[in-house]
Amino acid sequence: MGKRTTRQISVTVDADVLAKVERRLRAQKKTLSAFVSDALAEEVCRQNLRAALDDFERRHGAITSQELSAAHARVEKAVAHKPRRGAA
């Protein structure tokens, strides 16, 4: 992956949440900037997925609980057969 362009920002966050995150990050030797950047990227992915699902449902109707259960089962089966990252 190439070098990403970054921008410095200032944010206000809940002090208790920040303290918990900072403790975990110290243990993981990860920076707060990397954590926030990853969290923002994950949120963008969730928003994109939600938009795609909303578009699908507009075109094809609401996803039923049976369809959702079947999809979960397929994912569980696929995950069960895939080696975990970092597993030796």
Short overview:
By secondary structure, the protein is mainly alpha-helical. The protein is 67% helix and 0% strand.
Inertia-based shape: extended
Give the ordered list of helices and strands. HHH
> How many independent structural domains?
1
Determine the strand fraction and express it as a percent band: under 5%
Mean pLDDT: 92
Largest sheet: none
The helicity comes to 55-70%
Distance between the termini: 24 Å
Helix-and-strand structural type:
mainly alpha
Number of helices: 3
Quaternary structure of the protein? single chain
**Could you tell me the radius of gyration in angstroms?**
19 Å
Structure summary, number of beta strands: 0
Q: List the uncertain runs.
A: none
Secondary-structure map:
Layout: H1 15-28, H2 32-60, H3 65-80
Describe the structure.
The chain is mostly helical and 88 residues long. It has one domain. The protein has helices at 15-28, 32-60, 65-80. The two termini are 24 Å apart. The mean pLDDT is 92.
Key structural traits:
single chain, 3 helices, 88 residues, 0% strand, extended, mainly alpha, 67% helix
